[in-house]
Amino acid sequence: MSFTEIYQQLVEGLQKTSWLEFIAVISGIASVWFSRKENILVYPVGLVSTIIYISLSIDGHLFGEASVNFYYTVMSIYGWILWARRDASRQHVVQITYSNKKEWMHQILFFAAFYVGIYLTLSFLKKQFAPGAIPWADALASATAYTGMWLMARKKVESWYWWIATNFASIPLYFVKHYSFTSLYYFILLLMAFWGLAEWKKRAVDTQRKAIHAN
């Protein structure tokens, strides 16, 4: 596909984008902005986006994407609860930190389990119920997203690495499925993910310094 064809498909896709998809994209971008700032509004704003995308994905028979957004919805509630917790001194209980080796191993196993499970499920459903599925690509985008969302709820810096992987996988995935505006959305999220990673690295260092001084 040439650059001209890609551009033409993008323009045509944007023209056909529904107002619901516009709202989902805008609220999704706002949610990532709040996440970068470690603002708890990431969750209520993000819920608007995920709930709309569940509906859009089901309408488009994109069951892998629907499952991801359902998971986002559940984890947004979980993350909202975690981020809201404070100790006796009114400090947030969950702080931005780096993962240790054991936590990294858990992340990889978490990703691998979801990847295999989603891949096998979509491969089975593709013939009868999900003709638009691309099992290996859907599984990659979904499993990295599941891992990133889980880690974000726990304020782990590494969540941004998984988000970067999710965005890389989702840009072409949604484009070939003719969700051009959503593909553009993931490109914007990719840029914001690098920004968020840099911001959380700084905050993790601050957390380490405070812990050292406290001891």
Set out the fold topology.
Blueprint: H1 3-16, H2 19-36, H3 42-59, H4 63-84, H5 101-125, H6 135-153, H7 159-176, H8 180-214
Helix pairs in contact: 2-3, 2-8, 3-4, 4-6, 5-6, 6-7, 7-8
Q: How much β-strand is present in the residues?
A: under 5%
Class from secondary-structure proportions: mainly alpha
The overall pLDDT, averaged over residues, is: 87
How many helical stretches? 8
Distance between the termini: 59 Å
Helix coverage percent: over 70%
β-strand number: 0
Tally the structural domains: 1
Outline type: globular
One letter per element, helices H and strands E, the order comes to HHHHHHHH
The main β sheet shows up as: none
Give me the oligomer status. single chain
Q: Which residue ranges are poorly predicted, with pLDDT under 50 across at least 5 consecutive positions? A: none
Radius of gyration: 18 Å
Overview features:
215 residues, mainly alpha, 79% helix, 0% strand
Summarize the structure.
By secondary structure, this protein is an all-alpha fold.
Care to describe what's here?
- This protein is an all-alpha fold and 215 residues long.
- It has one domain.
- Helix content is 79%, strand content 0%.
- It is built from eight helices and no strands.
- Helix 3 packs antiparallel against helix 4 (63-84) and helix 5 (101-125) runs antiparallel to helix 6.
- The longest helix has 35 residues, at 180-214.
- It is globular, with a radius of gyration of 18 Å.
- The model has no long low-confidence stretch (mean pLDDT 87).
